Amino acid sequence: MVWDGDCDFCKKFAERFQEISKNAVEFIPNQELHKKYPGAPKYDYQSSVYFLTKESSAKGAEAVFNFYYSIEKKWPKRLYDKFSFLANISEFFYRVVASNRKIFSLLGKLFYGDNFLSDTYKISSWVFGRALGLASVIAFLSLFVQTGLLIGSEGIIPFTSELNQIESFITKSNLDISKWYAKPTLLWFFQNDLWLYTILITGIVASISLFVGLIPHISILVAWICYLSVAVVSEPFLNFQWDALLLETFFLSILFVPWKVFDSKNDHNGPSRIGLWLLWLLIIKLMFQSGLVKFTFFGADGSNTWRDLTALNYHYWTQPIPSWISYYVDKLPLVFDKLSLVFTYFCELFVPFLIFLPRRARRCSGIMLITFQFLIILTGNYGFFNLLTIIICFTLFDDQYLKHFLSKWAENHNTSENIELYHEKLKYIISILVLLCFISTTIFFVKRDLRGSVLNQVTTSNQPSAFEKKILEIAQVSRSMNAYGLFRVMTKTRPEIKIELQSENGQWHPVIFKYKPGDERKRPLFFFPHMPRLDWQIWFEALYYERLLSDPFAISTYQNFLSTIVIKDLDIDDIRISDFIDEKARKTLDRLPPSEKSFYMNRLSSRINIYLNNSYWFSRLLSNIVSGNEALSDHLNIDSELEYLNMKISLIHYSFDHSHNENWWETKMINSFNIELSN
């Protein structure tokens, strides 16, 4: 291959092609050609690149195609020879580039830097495996200390009740599906606390194994199975977007990390390109969907605070659990909120697509996305979500870039080519299949998000096709190809549920949640990367409670629903519609005509089913408080030795108090009701 030695742009391409050929083709500047090969043909080598063999010569685009043919990549040359239009287009673009080498040299330097050599990601992939192991340990440990309280045998909703309900439903409905298909969990083997904690400990051990590089692909697989096993039986406590992201990251990373016994720093093979692109596409999906829903979904009143640039006017104090830093950021001028919002749109809707561009643009994408995640960490408590996102973004940095920061690591690192192992073809085939499923589900999720609030109405247009439905069913079983979209509707108020117990002496004792707002003088906490799931779920319940206030029937039924389950301590299998009809209502119903009675009962039944799906966990929380659950009493600072006569459930609006007094919060009572426990 002969190129113009006076052209820096040509030199960079020659280096790249030489790398591709693995030195199987000789690259020589035209100025040295006849010194070394006096018999070489005399062409105008400065105007075009030439590919010379003993039998023939070719220039321009054809020379490039002949080069690929010579290194056993024959299909491009065959297409060039077979389709004249392709040849003409190729030659046209080659002449454009050749005639404007100075311009393209500047563009090349802008996007590629000093060379056009292939990007490698050995350093970032090695660090990614360790960082993912660390994040996984954090996620499992955070879950471990809460599991007994939430889903243990003495927890708010024991996981056994979830499994029994699924098994009973499949049997009664005569459904031709496996219980493993409905709930893919290892807890089907043994339904006890010991086995539950064994799964969590196994997940921790697998995460540590991943951190040290021991059988990384198996370690990730085990961690994924363990987390999935707990997540599917822990709704609504493990139904957050970071749980979905962790499962999806585990699943895709099996194809990204090396398939070897021990992944040492000095013997680390770079990741497969498909595995790398799967993680990059995950970043794009996560960020783009989160940005897209902000423009396409509207509140119940038809408003969209994201569109009118007012969302951050409310965000810092309406988010689930603000930190004390949020308090001070909220005090900044409104223009800061608007600029921050524009930066959010930029990071979510534009920056991810820089990943498709060459290395320098990809690096900029990684830097901006990581910066964005750090800012979110400072102004809110979202557990390990932002940490995990940062770890995935780390794969955007190539070795050339990281060598500047990790020079000692790079010096000792084996930079040889990846070893071709027997299982690489299997890994490649699996990766292709996963990639196709990933793209199919993502396209459906994006199409759905583009329709936005239209999804509140079931129409033919927003239903998946037969193919999409099948892919979505597969994805649902694994819980590892998910949709994202944080804060699609920004709330303008912050409702909080306050629970109080009245003792025999008439004194009211508040139930204290450690992390969420309560006492007006309580400073908001910063507890990254822990995820207090009960406190988070209470925030969602308060939003739901507030929405019911506009419908008298809905709110009265909701209050009666909670009261009934608390007083009677009903499990979900024991609940009957008749439980929610008191004697006075029963007499009234008996006097109604059959059609009206049926209408009322159907309406009540529908409402109760909604509460069972949304608020049953909350009713069980109240019931456990009343019954004196020891673990829960300790967690919520309840004096279990006292006898309580009444329980008060209040809905209170909270907002940051910037009046320069001792309070962090200002409050306003919205609604409350009592439950007589003595009955």
Overall average residue pLDDT: 90
How many discrete domains?
3
Number of strands: 8
| Neighbour order of strands in the largest sheet | 6-5-7-8
Q: Provide the structure class.
A: alpha+beta
Q: So what's the overall shape? A: elongated
Number of helical segments with 4 or more residues: 28
Helix coverage percent? 55-70%
Between the first and last Cα atoms, what is the distance in angstroms? 93 Å
Report the major sheet. Answer: 4 strands, antiparallel
Q: Report the β-strand fraction as a percent range.
A: 5-15%
Poorly predicted ranges (pLDDT <50, ≥5 residues)?
A: 415-420, 455-460
| Alpha-carbon Rg, integer | 31 Å
Kindly summarize this structure in a few lines.
With 679 residues, the protein is of the alpha+beta class.
